[in-house]
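Inverse folding, one chain.
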């Protein structure tokens, strides 16, 4: 079994990927680069990392010769290019989290740097590895709906998820992280390319970040939900309720305060997540659509929106012989054939890893490629990012 080092032991590196690699004996986790001393020590303890394989950042790791077969670069969006170029210089197999970068110039630099690179390079496009998407792709490939003519893809973020990540949290500012359609939806552009198997020829996009503003507050509200808001009982974004009893509980590990309600409320008094959503400094869209034309005249419409109850993707593909519809989180796929009027229902299950089994699927594919010393670079990775960035560029132009 080949070895790997985790760079950035946060939500993705420590909580999502490393446990799968270790549990399924896919790659041996032998090192970590993480500046947060508590996280680094906890990681070393869990995986039995030797002292000389624990680094306080990617800089000190990559200043040495290659120390393992692969690295998983799981730092934040704006901290992807430099460690990846350094990892390429050292000759590692690389998994780089998505988005590769929110800047076109950086994507160009990375693509150039990978020309002729003799190792694996993959990105965190977990969704194309889900059993749900694989099943839909198999139906299309088997000709179940004839030639695909149209596609609708919706990324229903869940109002609570959007508030956590894109209003109060780490991806709320396009200038320090990424625009919503890049951070959240480069995945979806990858899915469109993966399922249609065609290049995109034209793209249009509209969207705004108009809702989470003071003007939409229910009345005179304080800056923090912990400051005695008169609308606390009726506000769906009430941070105290969201993080102690609502869907937001899932994110509480990010607070580093434990899971007691009193500790969570105390943390909300000063951390970004206790802020009233109508008094934040977010500048990313709360909804955006993109209309795309692909080669052969296939048309697709993609919508990402904060305004949904559930955090789920829904999809519909319309073909000359039938249609396919589905909901990823439910694992439900419906196939209708025009000629004989039949309807078939499929229920797809997964391994329980996050993103409907995509995290597990990606790790297995990455480990397979590393263990076989493959040379794997998929041009669609870059195309999907460029489409997301182009959608944002066009949206901004339409806005002005
Ligand atoms: N593939 C997916 O579906 C998916 C899902 C969520 C997030 N992401 C992406 O994954 C990336 C990481 O997200 P996250 O939620 O794990 O973030 P995080 O903030 O939880 O983790 C990032 C970690 O990088 C560490 N770090 C900072 N500077 C470093 C340095 N110099 N060297 C090494 N480590 C350093 C931080 O201390 C932190 O622990 C982001 O780009 C995010 O957009 C991808």
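Residues assigned per position:
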């Amino acid at each position: 079994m080949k070895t790997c080092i985790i760079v950035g032991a946060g939500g993705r590196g420590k909580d999502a990927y490393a446990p799968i690699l270790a549990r399924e004996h896919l790659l041996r986790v032998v090192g970590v680069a993480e500046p947060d001393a508590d996280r680094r020590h906890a990681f070393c303890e869990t995986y039995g990392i030797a002292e000389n394989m624990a680094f306080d950042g990617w800089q000190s790791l990559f200043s040495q010769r290659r120390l393992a077969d692969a690295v998983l670069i799981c730092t934040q969006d704006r901290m992807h290019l430099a460690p990846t170029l350094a990892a390429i210089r050292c000759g590692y197999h690389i998994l780089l989290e998505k988005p590769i970068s929110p800047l076109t110039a950086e994507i160009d630099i990375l693509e150039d740097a990978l020309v002729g690179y003799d190792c694996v390079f993959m990105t965190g496009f977990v969704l194309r590895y889900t059993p749900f998407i694989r099943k839909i792709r198999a139906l299309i490939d088997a000709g179940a709906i004839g030639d695909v003519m149209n596609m609708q893809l919706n990324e229903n973020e869940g109002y609570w998820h959007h508030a956590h990540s894109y209003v109060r949290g780490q991806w709320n500012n396009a200038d320090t992280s990424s625009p919503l359609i890049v951070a959240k939806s480069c995945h979806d552009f990858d899915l469109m390319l993966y399922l249609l198997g065609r290049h995109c020829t034209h793209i249009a996009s509209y969207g705004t970040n108009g809702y989470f503003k003071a003007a939409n507050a229910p009345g005179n509200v304080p800056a923090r939900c912990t400051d005695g808001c008169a609308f606390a009982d009726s506000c769906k974004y009430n941070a105290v309720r969201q993080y102690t009893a609502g869907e937001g509980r899932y994110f509480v590990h990010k607070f580093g305060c434990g899971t007691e309600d009193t500790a969570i409320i105390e943390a909300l008094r000063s951390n970004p997540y206790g802020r009233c959503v109508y008094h934040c400094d977010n500048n990313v869209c709360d909804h955006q659509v993109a209309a795309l034309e692909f080669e052969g005249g296939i048309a697709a419409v993609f919508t990402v929106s904060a305004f949904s109850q559930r955090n789920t993707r829904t999809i519909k593909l319309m073909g000359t012989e039938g249609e396919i519809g589905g909901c990823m989180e439910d694992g439900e796929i419906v196939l209708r054939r025009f000629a004989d009027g039949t309807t078939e229902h499929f229920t797809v299950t997964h391994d329980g890893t996050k993103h409907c089994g995509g995290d597990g699927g990606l790790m297995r594919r990455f480990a397979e490629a590393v263990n076989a010393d493959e040379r794997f670079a998929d041009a669609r990775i870059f195309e999907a990012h460029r489409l997301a960035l182009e959608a944002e560029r066009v949206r901004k132009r339409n806005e002005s």
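The chain has three domains: 3-124+362-377, 128-212+282-361+383-399, 214-279. The chain has a mean pLDDT of 97.
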